C-alpha cells in the first residue's frame, strides 16, 4: 500500500492544453441528435421541418462507390473511398427537398474532440464548391424525397475511419441522425488523383503497387537469386483496421495522418518491436521455440491480425518479413509500395563507406578480428510519394526500411529517403540517406595486421557491395533489375561525382595504393549444390607475367547467417604451388557434406573466404564466395475445376532429401480469396519419405488467385511452393 501511495500520478494534459492530444482513430464522441440554439423554453415543434428518413452510402461491392474508388476488393462491409475523388450517397427525407428553405449538411468526424481547424471535423454543405485543400459537395439529383449527393474529400484529407452524420438546420437547433457505425467511411490515399501526394500516373504500376495482393521476394546470392512468394493480403478481413491500429498504437497524431512521409516514417518504427512494442519481433538466433520461425510465414495477414487482436508483438521476423508486412501496410492505406532486395548489403558500418576484413601477415583471414559484416541480401521497401519537405526533383520512389539496425532520431527506423538523392550522392536530405547510400556503395577493405598490432590497407574491392538491386516486374512474376536507380556504373564519371558528393557530406572512403597484379584468381562452383551433397570449390589462377610465381593460398569455409555473421568454421585448408610463365592452373577444393550439413542455419548458406600471397609478398590475393545450397520445393496440385463458392481441393506434396529425419515439421497453406491460413504438423518425416496433404476449400473471389505453401523445421527452412488458380463464375 505504501508503494502505491508514493507512486506519481499518471501524466495528464490538464493545465497544459484544453484537450488531450488526439492520436487515436478509435476514440469518438457521439454528437447529440438534437443540438438546440440557446436554451429552449419547451419541446420544439419540428414536424414542419425537414426530417431524415434514410441514409444510403452505397457501400456494397457492386455499387458505384467501391468500384470507382478501386476499393471493391476489400473484405469490409463499410464504405471505403479514396481522397480527392467524388463518391455518392443518397438521402431520403420525409418530403421533397426545397433548396430555398431547407438547409442540411453531411458531417464527417474522426477521433475525439473533433475540430474544423484540425481537419478532424468536416461539415459538408450541398453545392459547396470544391476548393483545393477542402472538401466539396454537389447535388447530382433531387427526385421526390430522395437527394443524391456527390461528395469529394480533400486531396490532402486525413487518412482513416470517419464517422458520418446528416444534420438538418431548424430555427430551434440542429437535428441530426443517430450514431450508426454502419455509416462509417474509410478514407484512403489515392494514387489515381493527381492532387494527392501519392499520385502515380501509370495504370499498370497502380495495379501492381497498390492492388496486387500477392508478390515475390528475392533472396539468396547475387549469382544465384532465389524467389519466394508472399501473400500481402491487404484486402483481407480485418487488415485495414489492423493498419489503423498500428498508427493508434504509435500514438501518431491524427493531424499527421494526411502526410505519407510522416506515416511511412512512423510505420517503419512500428513494424519492428525493438523500442515501441511494434508488430514483429526480430530474431536471427536460429531459436524460435516460442513463436513462428521467420522462414515459416506465408504472408502478412496472420501477423497483422494477431498483433491487432492481442496488442502483443508477433514472434518472429527477419528483413523480408519486416519488408513484406510493411508493404501490406502501405498498399492497404493506398500508398504505392514494393519490396526491394539489395544483394551484398553493407551493415553496421556507421556510414563510413567501408567494410573491414583483417588478414594476418601471411595473408590468412582472421575471423576473430573481422567485426563488420555484409549481408548476402537485405530487403527494404520503396514507397511512391512527393517530397515537399526536400528540394524539388527528389520525389518519386523513397526508401523506407523497417528492419531494426540503427536508431534514427532515437528510434529504430529508417527513411523515407529519396532514391534519386541516393543515386546522386545528395545524402544531406532527410531521412537516413547516408546509411542507405553506404549499404549499396561501401568498399570492402582488406587490412594486413602486423605482429605489433598495427594494420595497413592492402586491397580495396569497390564492386562487391550492392551488386544488384531487384524487385518484382510490373504485372509479371519476373525480376526487375533497378540497380541503375540507385547507383551509376562503377568507374564512370557520374559514379565518381556521386561518391565525391557523398564524401563532401562527411562520408569517408579509404584510399590506398594497390599492389601490382601479377596473378588473377577466380572462384566458382560449377553447378548448383543441393543441400546435403558434396561439391568442388574451383579456384582458377592465371599468371599475367613471364616469370614463375609461387603461391600460398588459404581457404576458410564458414557456416554463416544470411546477415554475414559467422556461426562456425567448418573447414580450413591451405594450398601451395607454383605457376609457370603465363600459365593458368585450376585447383579443386573438395567440400564434404558431412562437414557442414549438421551445422547449417536457416538460410543454408556457406561462405568461403580465399586469401593468400604471391612470392611471399609481391601480391595479396583475396576473394569471397557465397554458396547458397539448393532447397527442394513443395509441389501443389489442384484437383477439379475452380468455381466460385464451390468446393475443390489441392494437394501438397514433399519428399525429404536429407539423410536424416525431419522432426516437428510445420506446413502452412494460404491463399487470398481462396482460403484462410491452414497449418498442419508432422512429428517426423524419415529420409527419402514423402508426405501428402489434401485440403478442401471454397473460392470466394473470381479471377486469378494464388495458393502459397511453406514447410519449416529445425533442419530445413525456406521450403515453399506456389500455384496459380483461375476461379470461374
Describe this structure in words.
With 729 residues, the chain is mainly beta. It has 4 domains: 24-188, Immunoglobulin-like, CATH 2.60.40.10; 203-504, Transglutaminase-like (Coagulation Factor XIII, Chain A, domain 2, Alpha-Beta Complex), CATH 3.90.260.10; 519-628, Sandwich (Immunoglobulin-like); 635-727, Immunoglobulin-like (Sandwich). It contains 12 helices and 40 strands. The strands form 11 sheets. Strands 1, 3, 5, 6, 9, 10 and 11 form a 7-stranded mixed beta sheet that branches. The chain has a 6-stranded antiparallel beta sheet with strand order 22-19-18-16-25-26, with helices on both faces. It has a 4-stranded antiparallel beta sheet with strand order 2-4-8-7. A hairpin with a 2-residue loop joins strand 20 (407-408) and strand 21. Helix 4 (239-249) packs across helix 6. The model has no long low-confidence stretch (mean pLDDT 91). Its cofactor is Ca(2+). It is an enzyme of class 2 (transferase). Its EC number is 2.3.2.13. Residues 1-39 are annotated as: Disordered.
Give the beta-strand count.
40
The chain-level structural class is mainly beta
Distance between the termini: 67 Å
Query: How many individual domains?
Result: 4
The percentage of residues in β strands lies in 35-45%
CATH superfamily descriptor of the largest domain: Transglutaminase-like
CATH class of the largest domain: Alpha Beta
Residue windows where pLDDT falls under 50 for at least 5 positions: none
At the third CATH level, what is the topology name of the largest domain? Answer: Coagulation Factor XIII, Chain A, domain 2
Amino acid at each position: 500500500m505504501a508503494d502505491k501511495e508514493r507512486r506519481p500520478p499518471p501524466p495528464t494534459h490538464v493545465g497544459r492544453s484544453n484537450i488531450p492530444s488526439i492520436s487515436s482513430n478509435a476514440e469518438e464522441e457521439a454528437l447529440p441528435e438534437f443540438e438546440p440554439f440557446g436554451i429552449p423554453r419547451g419541446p420544439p415543434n419540428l414536424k414542419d421541418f425537414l426530417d431524415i428518413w434514410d441514409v444510403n452510402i452505397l457501400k456494397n461491392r457492386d455499387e458505384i462507390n467501391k468500384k470507382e474508388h478501386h476499393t471493391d476488393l476489400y473484405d469490409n462491409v463499410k464504405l471505403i473511398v479514396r481522397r480527392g475523388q467524388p463518391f455518392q450517397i443518397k438521402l431520403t427525407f420525409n418530403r421533397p427537398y426545397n433548396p430555398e428553405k431547407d438547409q442540411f449538411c453531411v458531417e464527417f468526424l474522426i477521433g475525439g474532440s473533433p475540430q474544423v481547424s484540425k481537419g478532424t471535423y468536416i461539415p459538408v454543405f450541398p453545392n459547396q464548391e470544391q476548393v483545393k485543400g477542402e472538401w466539396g459537395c454537389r447535388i447530382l439529383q433531387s427526385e421526390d424525397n430522395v437527394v443524391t449527393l456527390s461528395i469529394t474529400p480533400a486531396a490532402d484529407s486525413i487518412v482513416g475511419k470517419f464517422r458520418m452524420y446528416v444534420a438538418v438546420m431548424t430555427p430551434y437547433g440542429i437535428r441530426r441522425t443517430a450514431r450508426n457505425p454502419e455509416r462509417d467511411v474509410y478514407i484512403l490515399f489515392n494514387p489515381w488523383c493527381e492532387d494527392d501526394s501519392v499520385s502515380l500516373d501509370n495504370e499498370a504500376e497502380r495495379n501492381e503497387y497498390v492492388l496486387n495482393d500477392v508478390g515475390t521476394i528475392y533472396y539468396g546470392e547475387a549469382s544465384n537469386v532465389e524467389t519466394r512468394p508472399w501473400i500481402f493480403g491487404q484486402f483481407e478481413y480485418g487488415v485495414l483496421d489492423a493498419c489503423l491500429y498500428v498508427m493508434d498504437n504509435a500514438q501518431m497524431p491524427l493531424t499527421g495522418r494526411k502526410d505519407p512521409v510522416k506515416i511511412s516514417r512512423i510505420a517503419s518504427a512500428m513494424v519492428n518491436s525493438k523500442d515501441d512494442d511494434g508488430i514483429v519481433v526480430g530474431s536471427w538466433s536460429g531459436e524460435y521455440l516460442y513463436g513462428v520461425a521467420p522462414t515459416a510465414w506465408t504472408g502478412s495477414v496472420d501477423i497483422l491480425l494477431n498483433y491487432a487482436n492481442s496488442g502483443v508483438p508477433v514472434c518472429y521476423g527477419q528483413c523480408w518479413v519486416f519488408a513484406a508486412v510493411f508493404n501490406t501496410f502501405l498498399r492497404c492505406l493506398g500508398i504505392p509500395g514494393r519490396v526491394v532486395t539489395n544483394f551484398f548489403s553493407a551493415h553496421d558500418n556507421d556510414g563510413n563507406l567501408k567494410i573491414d576484413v583483417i588478414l594476418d601477415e601471411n595473408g590468412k583471414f582472421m575471423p576473430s578480428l573481422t567485426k563488420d559484416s555484409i549481408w548476402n541480401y537485405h530487403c527494404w521497401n520503396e514507397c511512391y510519394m512527393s517530397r515537399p519537405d526536400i528540394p524539388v526533383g527528389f520525389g518519386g520512389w523513397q526508401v523506407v526500411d523497417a528492419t531494426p539496425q540503427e536508431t534514427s532520431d532515437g528510434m529504430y527506423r529508417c527513411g523515407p529517403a529519396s532514391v534519386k538523392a541516393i543515386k546522386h550522392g545528395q545524402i544531406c536530405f532527410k531521412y537516413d540517406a547516408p546509411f542507405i547510400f553506404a549499404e549499396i556503395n561501401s568498399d570492402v577493405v582488406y587490412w594486413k595486421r602486423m605482429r605489433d598490432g598495427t594494420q595497413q590497407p592492402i586491397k580495396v574491392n569497390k564492386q562487391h557491395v550492392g551488386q544488384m538491386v531487384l524487385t518484382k516486374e510490373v504485372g509479371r512474376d519476373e525480376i526487375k533489375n533497378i540497380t541503375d536507380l540507385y547507383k551509376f556504373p562503377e568507374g564512370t564519371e557520374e559514379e565518381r561525382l556521386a561518391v565525391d558528393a557523398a564524401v563532401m557530406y562527411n562520408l569517408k572512403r579509404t584510399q590506398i595504393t594497390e599492389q601490382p597484379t601479377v596473378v588473377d584468381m577466380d572462384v566458382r562452383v560449377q553447378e548448383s549444390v543441393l543441400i546435403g551433397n558434396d561439391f568442388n570449390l574451383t579456384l582458377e589462377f592465371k599468371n599475367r607475367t613471364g616469370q614463375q610465381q609461387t603461391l600460398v593460398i588459404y581457404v576458410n569455409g564458414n557456416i554463416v547467417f544470411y546477415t554475414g555473421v559467422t556461426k562456425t568454421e567448418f573447414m580450413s585448408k591451405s594450398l601451395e604451388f607454383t605457376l609457370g610463365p603465363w600459365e593458368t592452373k585450376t585447383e579443386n577444393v573438395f567440400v564434404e557434406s558431412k562437414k557442414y550439413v549438421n551445422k547449417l542455419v536457416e538460410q543454408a548458406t556457406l561462405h568461403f573466404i580465399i586469401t593468400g600471397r604471391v612470392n611471399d609478398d609481391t601480391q595479396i590475393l583475396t576473394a569471397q564466395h557465397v554458396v547458397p545450397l539448393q532447397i527442394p520445393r513443395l509441389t501443389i496440385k489442384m484437383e477439379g475445376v475452380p468455381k466460385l463458392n464451390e468446393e475443390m481441393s489441392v494437394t501438397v506434396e514433399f519428399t525429404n532429401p536429407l539423410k536424416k529425419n525431419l522432426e516437428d515439421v510445420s506446413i502452412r497453406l494460404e491463399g487470398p480469396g481462396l482460403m484462410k491460413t491452414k497449418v498442419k504438423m508432422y512429428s517426423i518425416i524419415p529420409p527419402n519419405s514423402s508426405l501428402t496433404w489434401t485440403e478442401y476449400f471454397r473460392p470466394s473471389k473470381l479471377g486469378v488467385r494464388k495458393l502459397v505453401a511453406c514447410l519449416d523445421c529445425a533442419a530445413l527452412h525456406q521450403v515453399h511452393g506456389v500455384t496459380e488458380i483461375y476461379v470461374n463464375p
